[in-house]
Amino acid sequence: MQPWKNGIPSICLAHAAYDLAAELRRQGWRNGATVVRARDELASALSEVEVLVISGLWTDDVLRLAPRLRLVIAPPSRPPSIAPAQTRSLP
Fold first, then answer.
1. Do residues 66 and 49 touch, judged by C-beta distance below 8 A?
2. Cα separation of 91 and 88, whole Å?
3. Digitized pLDDT (tens) for each residue of the chain, 91 residues in all
4. Is residue 87 part of a domain?
């Protein structure tokens, strides 16, 4: 079994200011990604997302709205030494 649909993950890059897609391209990613800059755009994109790179747009609805989600990458908004630890199992 392949870990991703069609062998390539469906990626969503969610950040209001940073151009995360440009960074992916700089690192050689050529398969595209959905880019969202606002919470309403994120909500509509989540149904197909398998990998979510998110910063600043997180809401508690994300996990509920993303049934195919397998990986979340969320850089801390505060230094790790004071950021609260949170873990949640994904299906």
1. yes
2. 10
3. 457 767 888 899 998 887 888 888 888 888 888 999 999 999 999 998 999 999 888 888 899 999 999 999 887 655 444 444 555 555 5
4. no
In a domain, 86, yes or no: no
The residue type found at 49 is: V
d(CA 7, CA 82): 38
If we measure between CA atoms, which residue out of 82, 52, 85 comes closest to residue 67? 52
Number of domains making up the chain: 1
Rounded to two decimals, what is the model's pTM?
0.74
**Would 90 be classed as within a structural domain?**
no
